[in-house]
Amino acid sequence: MARLIFFWAIALALISIVNATTLTRLFKNQFNSKRNLFALNKRALSPQLGPFTFPQKVDHFDWNNHATFPQRYWVNSTNYRPGGPIIFFNVGESDASGFTDYLIEGETSLLAQRLGGVVIVFEHRYYGESNPVPVPLGIPVSFWQKTEPGDPGPFEEFCQAFNNATTPSAQVAAYASWTTAYAANACQNQTQDDYFGTHDPKASKCTNTTLNNDDRSWLWQTCLEFGYWQTAAPKGHLTLISRLVTPDYFQRQCQLFFPVSILSSKPRTNYINEKFGGWKLEADHIFWINGEFDPWRSLSVAAPNAPTRLSTEKSPNVLIKDAVHVWDAFWSPTTTIPEPIVEVHNQLVASLSGWLKNFNTI
Which family does it belong to (predicted)? Predict the structure, then answer.
């Protein structure tokens, strides 16, 4: 049986299931093609890495439904050593073709090199070209989660706008100036009303039902399953976001995108938490990694108000100081990585190495 390391969170609402035997067969076809996979001094990937497709079941719960659709994936087996694991990266929120760098860089590639594994980048259904049906079923994720190590990013630019603003009036003016510049850049070819508006059902973002529409697919998951609304902090806590931005503010917009007849009054968050454990999930051989300032931390097991979770040998729990969204995923053989991230990588490799040695007894 092939050994699987599931990397990053798998979106639960539209989960795609592939068994270990299938994955083993997929990468064995490549195992003998280790040379000339990458063009010299170029980031372009060789076609030998993909994309490939396989016939995925449309419905895993109806045994009488045998319909399938082509689901995309990419494979890099250049680091594989007999007995090595599969580093399985399920790209759960986007067209996976934008994440193929993880075949040769990033935490996935580091794990493959250190553990002798195979990297598989897998495209989630209803994203990119992995669509179960030929007809489609957004709101952009908060901009500051895109900050990267060594890159000031939008959030720091936001803070820098206030450097010389020492009075309330100057701070209001600085905020207005920054907002104007950000809005002009974000809207691109759309009007500000069309891009930022939340009341017009005829706005292009609401009526765009074409396939390969990441924003719409993600909104479908949040409206029906996850919630995941990035709202203001609770009363009594400092907040960067207006207190007018509430769960109801986001939920109201769902009916602009999808038929009211198929929407519930709120996402099925209670069902999801009960089924999968929520903050109380207890399972061995999960390495929990979070960033101290990740905007998604409040939804993780490292949330400040989550039950205390001990870090154990079978279930390490690490919070990277000063880190934000997915900083642990950054790694490159030609780039100096900040020491806190290096430490987490070393801990991760050590834990996985130990688990793999004992795989047959797990």
Answer: Belongs to the peptidase S28 family.
Give the range of the structural domain holding residue 40, as residue numbers without chain letter.
Answer: 4-123
**HEC secondary structure over 150-168:** CCCHHHHHHHHCCCCCCCH
Closest CA to 88 of 31, 2, 29, 4: 4
- DSSP-derived 3-state class of residue 91: strand
CA distance readout (Å), 199 to 193, 195, 204, 342: 9, 11, 12, 46
For residues 79 and 166, membership in a common domain is answered with: no
| Alpha carbons 123 and 51: distance in angstroms, whole number | 10
Res. 235: pLDDT tops 60? yes
Number of domains comprising the chain: 3
Contact 152, 143 (CB under 8 A): no
Last residue of a domain, one of 96, 123, 150: 123
Give CA–CA dist 24/86, Å, rounded: 8
Long-range Cβ contact pairs of 34-39 (< 8 A, separation 24 or more): 34/77, 34/78, 37/76, 37/78, 38/104
Same domain flag for 143 and 45: no
Verdict on whether the full-model pTM lies above 0.70: yes
The side-by-side arrangement of strands in the sheet containing 4-7 is: 4-7, 86-91, 118-123, 68-76, 52-57
Secondary structure class of 18 (helix, strand, coil):
coil
Which 8-state DSSP code applies to residue 103?
A: G
Output the average pLDDT for the chain: 79
- Note the pLDDT of residue 169: 85
Q: Please, which pLDDT band fits residue 178 given cuts at 50, 70 and 90? A: confident
Same domain, 17 and 96: yes
